[in-house]
Amino acid sequence: MKRRILLASAAVALALTGTAFADGHAKTKVGFVYVGPVGDGGWTYEHNKGRLAVEEHFGDKVETVFQESVPEGADSERVMTQMALAGADLIFTTSFGYMDPTINVAAKFPDVKFEHATGYKQADNVSVYSARFYEGRAVQGHIAGKMTKTNKVGYIASFPIPEVIRGINSAFIHAKKVNPDVEFSIVWAYTWFDPAKEADAAQALIEQGADVILQHTDSTAPQAAAEAAGNVVTFGQASDMAEFGPFPRVSSIIDDWAPYYIARTQAVMDGTWESTSTWDGIGAGMVAIGEISDAVPADVKAEALAMIDALADGSYHAFTGPINKQDGSAWLAEGETADDGTLAGMSFYVEGITGEIPN
Amino acid sequence: MIRLEKRAQPSQFWTFATPFLAVVLTMIVGGIMFAALGSDPFEAIRTIFWDPLFSEQFAAYSRPQLLVKAGPLILIAIGLSMGFKAGIWNIGAEGQYIIGAICGAGMGLAFYPIESVLIFPLMILAGALGGWAWAIIPAVLKTRFGTNEILVSLMLVYVAEALLASVASGLLKNPDGMGFPGSRNLAQIPSTANLEIIQGTGMHYGVLTAFIAVVFAYVLLSRHMLGFQIRLTGEAPRAARFAGVNPTRIVFLCLGLAGTLAGMAGMYEVSGPAGQITIDFNSGYGFTAIIVAFLGRLHPIGILFAGLLMALTYIGGELASLMLGIPSAAIQLFQGMLLFFLLATDVFISFRIRLTSGEAA
Q1: What is the dihedral of CA A4, A8, A9, A13, to 10 degrees?
Q2: Looking at the structure, do residues B128 and B168 belong to the same domain, yes or no?
Q3: Which of A43, A121, B17, B262 is positioned for an S-S bond with B93, CB 3.0–4.6 A?
């Protein structure tokens, strides 16, 4: 590869750092590449909380660095390279779009460990990790189906990638189960973080009669729009967004990366780090459900808590048949559960969702 | 009391001096800001302006990166400057850049997995044509129906972004990508990769094209009849008409040229540094290039330096944020200051400051 040679001289600089580390330099340096600002209140905010947890857990033994609002693509490749050159031992790249850049940079720095969130490309020094957010979506769907009076649920989707489609399907299946008349209106915002766009999307959905809004974007703008509307239910996304509770925010999906980040940093310190693929859910604590507020009726809350327990101990899978695909063809038979391969690459809606996945 | 007095002639001295004055003022005010944020201002300024070029740890990597970052900015800005000189305001270079990238990548992927040395030139052609066609839309609408090219070209950016999202998750999606959006990685296919011409310099074909465009634009503007006509159209439209300049022709030429160069920039970017068409492949080069064009005073050589300076603030800014933990918003503010002070000090070119007593006013 072209840039491998370009970096020949840079690698020398790195080799020096590497030697120092082998000699037992005191601090392990951990880098984080963020797609949004650390103050987004959602996705990046939680990753940054994970970083702070690493600092707190290891104290003087680690040094962390981060770069926020890094565009996906060529710019991210440069940011990662600079991090590696600055002596990072372990680098977490926390957005899907960093996949190819992570692989490219990892090839140039074989001694640096990389961890890419939500992607699927591994290498000797690149692990992938993600959370089973769809388990949280199942709980949201259940509450949404019970709470809606207009039977219209709005969904602010980000990009048409499997992770997002999985979330829509999971929420829809569980909303439909408790409310056969429920309809989903899905708006594609084509952004992870853009408060103005997200607010517009929420506003449009509310005007169409949606009284529950689910979001797969990271800002709190939809929460604010729902609060202004007065009678619209929302859920915190990626972060608890508790400041909008107890209403409109009635619950949330919280990403808790701290245990994973601490464990992986420990592995680098111990020299036991290996390239792995991790996909943890509620059971392992990577996905948490934020407190269900009193705005939710007690019986619905009890059902939701029961579902959380069942998802956590594995007795219930969020995709359990019978489920048909949108075109009516059979996907899962009675009692059958979805396999991880299909879920990982999910690119179809389940039966009952109207509209098409954009392409 | 301070008074501004118009100079008879724009000052030669200040035309050259204001960029430097702007940089110095930015360093001072930016330094105060960094100090207020709790960082050592001298270290911050050094990290931004000095380290990418001369630090032992980073320079070997960031010096070539400077060219990689500046290349598309210069290429697009050169095209835009022609139009701006003629008073034709193409704000939609970002869209032309996107369409160029889509067409170039599409051409390359159409041949996959055939390998041939002819594919890359065809991709350049497709990228240039794509950008040209996208820029010609506002030209046709302007000359036929009198629409405003600022609005049309800007709106077409959003159309282009929607198209990009569509092809990234549909037409050009990597069939081996497990259902994820994004095309195959062009930089990993030998025939479609926009490689460095000389290893380790960052000098890929797009940067080379940018340099050629600088020379070409310089000759065109200073030595060629067409360049004279472009300048005349901008400075004195009526005089231009009397001199027999066909305004429709100038509109088509300026927009077409800008589109062509922006399209090529997009194609070189997608086949090299970026590697693949993704939903949000564009990262604002088309808009930043407008700033570069004005920072370089619409002069080809000026644009060359302005592009490099912008690239330096980007890369140095990233370093400062990484090494010193300065928030990325503060870095953007710092970049904004540079432009602000440049425009503000421009007043010295056409005006001189007079200190007069109150009665005189």
Answers
A1: 80
A2: yes
A3: B262
